[in-house]
User: What shape does this take?
Amino acid sequence: MKRAALVLCGGRSKRMGRAKAWLPWFGQTMVEHVVSTLGPLVDEVVVVTAADLDLPPLPAQVVRDQEAELGPLAGLRDGLAVVESDLVFVTGTDVPEIPAGYLERLFSREGACAPISEGHVQVLSAVYPARAAAEAAASLLAAGKRRPLDLLEALDYQAIEESEVVAPGEARPWQGFNTPEAYLSAVRARDIDATAQVEILGRAAIGLEESIFDVPVSTLGEALRRLPASLELIEDGRVAQSYLVSLGGRDVVRDLDLPIGPGERVSVLDALAGG
Amino acid sequence: MQGFHGKYLRYDLSRREGRVVELDEAVLRGVLGGVGLGSFLLHEEAPVGVDPLAPEAPLIFVFSPLVGTGITTSAKFAVVAKSPLTNRICDALASSHFAIDGKRMGYDAIVFVGACDAPSDWVRGELRPSVSWGRSAEETGRALRSEGRVAAIGIAGENRVRYATISSDGRHAGRGGLGAVMGAKRLKSVVVAGDIETSSADPERVSALALALRNRANGPATAKYSQLGTIGNMLTFDRLGALPTRNFQQSHFEGAEALAGERWQGERRHRRASCAHCTIGCEHRFGYQAKGKDGDASTREVRAEYESLFALGPLCGIDDPDEVLAASQRCDELGLDTISAGGTLAFAMECGDRGELEGGPRFGESVLGWLDQIAAREGLGDRLALGSRRFAEELGGDAIDRAPQVKGMELPGYEPRSLQTMALGLAVGTRGADHNRSGAYEADFSDKVDRLHGDARSVAHAIESEDRAALIDSLVLCKFVRAAFDDLFEESAELLTAVTGESFKAIDLQGAAARIVDLRKAFNQREGAGPKEDTLPKRLLEEPLRSGPAVGARLPARRLAEMIEGYYAGRGWTAEGRVSKKRLAQLADELGLAPRKRADRVTNEDVQ
Assistant: This one.
């Protein structure tokens, strides 16, 4: 039986405040990390992203979710529609560790199956029979259903106790992160000394002996507070009006609660960029 | 109405005679001065379908109601004509004493039609044989300075390079090839001087408002420009994946660090300067090592601006600061628009890489010799002098898809795929790819929009930005003072009321801005423009960014089309992007836009 992996990354990432697919993860973005983890373990990888979320180049087939408002079931339907393999492992883009053994244990069931952890069915760390799941997902959506659990139930899935698929000492492969705190905890759990860089550009850089500062991974506010106070980077609980901050060269932000990840380059720019 | 003279001079170079034409107050209220008045006059004076380089094509120098008031940055003038680069409306602004002395001639605008029978200087209403044909604009300025303030073309303008500039005091009315229009008229220079002042209706109020604006313009609102200048954009754009590189094949340049103004502060000789009547002082001049023909090096100095450095640096794959500054200086001397010169050369460089052009310029190699060839129209330079669109059309095949232009005008240094509100502004601009008539990038550089995914929010920002630019360019003030206004329309209305003695409200100026945008569009419309030209080069709509911070960013044609559709609707234009017949009739009624009327207003007052 051919095996595929389907990575859903079209969510809004509202609580995180930034697209989770683009969060840094030790030299890669999260979506690159998840795809590169799964690539060697399966025959094909499909990534479903939102219509308005572009991704870095990936060794995977990328599908755009045209009905993001319908939730992950619509993303599943769109992704399953292009899967050519028999079985497909479905995961989110915020899962830093997916052990090979875990995948093997699920695939060996040769049908729809999902782990149960603390009473919850882990629908986004489960295996689905691709063709049947594609048809069922389309039917469920047409009937107004939205929950991925409905799909598993329609496929008569096998519920597996966590202890049967997660070896002692292994990470739970459904344990992602939805908030800055959870993300930063996961980063620190991997490397307590992980750092990011803050670069001062524009007129604020004139006269600075150093314009690049190493800071521990943290929220943006915590990072900026480590820089010389003379720069006056923060006012009224936000990035000061005379500056802009770019995270990784992508998001232009003012919210100090956003997380910055390992190896990330934070650029502090003049507010009047351009012109 | 005070602040205006209420008339313009129409000078026929072929007949060597001028006539004074009255301007209705309704026109001046309706389109103000600068770009607005110039757009109106182009409607009036340009025959429909005229060849921009034909004698019949008008070349219009326009002043504004604020010139001479002492308001910071108000010493600017506009030049307006049909562009030989785009065949569409073109206006370009320059800051210099020419604006002040030009207005003192007693006119709100000077319109040149016809052509001289030999290279000439127009000196305060008198045509004389040119004293400097074959020399630079700067040399011409020096030669004629005792006669007045000088606007002149360089060798590129004489040779009708389609992106030649007109310059005054070292500042250029740079875009769209207005220098070629002047060259086609064999008009080397325009020299102005006079003593006919306009007065302000309420001088004390004008002084108070001017002082308040000047004080605000000395603070954080303009600190970027005074402390670093526009070259501060280089590293910023690079870090955001917005720095067009190697003919828009990349948006991040590995050599950007070497071209960063922040890094030059301690390394290079550095001097700051200001334009006439400007308290900001954005001009940052840096030293560079110029190599002479004999191989000797000498230190020279040049004004460094982001747009020139981007176009002659990253866009051409060049990271040697001496080379880039020297190229910028060479463009100034020859009278070439740096953006179009760099864009056309970068396009030719990519053609060379792809095996579509032999013996042309190559990425990373010096462009100095090529700039000389373009200005002189020698060898391949003769074809490059046409601009990237015409050159691509000559090459044939799919080369046009990679020509970095909109409506024939080369793109400025804003990567549309990673600045998608700006992408809309660039696509719909009436002048072509333009960062001065649309400052939509300001929304991209904020947390108000997703700059990597344009949507309806982008549309609203693009329209607002165009309207603000239309007002600023018609007053005329410098864009760099924009952040010193709390409410641009409200405060501008106060200024105009104090200057003119007529009541202006913010709503009047919002109406004027929209009218000016419509007027410009209407001109293009009558010259054959259609919605198909409101777009971006195919490459930008088909190729995602493949490296750098904005990797993966893409701007599908459908997304751009949806934004354009929203823009047309927001402007009140038809779905095909046309100013409606009803609106055209309204404009004609408000401004008296009818050629026969112009003849009625010609007086018998001869030019002194």
